[in-house]
Fold this sequence. Notes:
CATH topology of chain A: Four Helix Bundle (Hemerythrin (Met), subunit A)
Structural class of chain B: mainly alpha
Structural class of chain A: mainly alpha
Order of helices and strands of chain A: HHHH
CATH class of chain A: Mainly Alpha
Largest sheet of chain A: none
Number of helices of chain B: 5
Oligomer: heterodimer
Radius of gyration of chain A: 15 Å
Number of strands of chain B: 0
Number of helices of chain A: 4
Low-confidence stretches of chain B: 1-12
Radius of gyration of chain B: 17 Å
Helix content of chain A: over 70%
Mean pLDDT of chain A: 95
Low-confidence stretches of chain A: none
Largest interface: A-B, 19 and 17 residues
Amino acid sequence: MLDALTIATGVAALALAAWCGFAAYRDQRTMDWHFLGMAVVSLLAVVQLVVGIVQLARGEKPAQGTAIFVAYLLGAFACVPAAGFMSLAERSRWGSLTVSAGGVVLAVLEVRLFDIWGG
Amino acid sequence: MTATDRTAEEGAPGTRRKLIAGPGILLVWLYGVMVVGAVSRSVFQIATDFDRAPLAYSLSALAGVVYGFITYSLVRGGDRARRAALVCCAAELVGVLIVGTWTLLEPSAFPDTTVWSDYGRGYLFIPVLLPVTGMLWLRRARTA
């Protein structure tokens, strides 16, 4: 369950990165549908956070330690919203590129989460 | 800072030169990510397991502090902050080059990795790329 979510979130994050990177390439600022995309990715991260905490509450142990696991879950949860707010402050292609970088960072976090949970 | 200082430094209050416009916002984001990465990592490692690799963990903490200061300077803006950030980017570049080389030459000094090990390979080489782009941006911002 958690592994599937991690993979889904990582893939969605990469898709968001490609999409917003394309917007930056075409010199576009982030638009409503970009924010919709960010909302979808953020929602996945929230679900992942909740499922992760439920798994911990059931007594399952992440392979590389609970503290690191929770820290990465929180980081993954905050990543895309933070980049989204920054793109609101910078209404140009650079805002789009920031969201794109946020997607890449989230994808990296998901790879790490996969390792931390599974070993 | 008093009102006169501010006037002397930036001409008039409220006109402090923005360093986060345009490409600057991307730099702030990447530096912000590195702050969270380096600080949380070193806090965790120092709190749980400091004796295993004191040098590596202290260097990670130092890197986190430098990243934090640069991020703050970028957000704050103004010419003095720009110069301070420029100095820190240079220090960061020197740090990542020295530590990166050191970890390659003498791995035994580092039982565990730092943010700057192997020139930041564990962080997609962002630690070595970021100060270079940061300095280019800060130099350009002077004339903008």
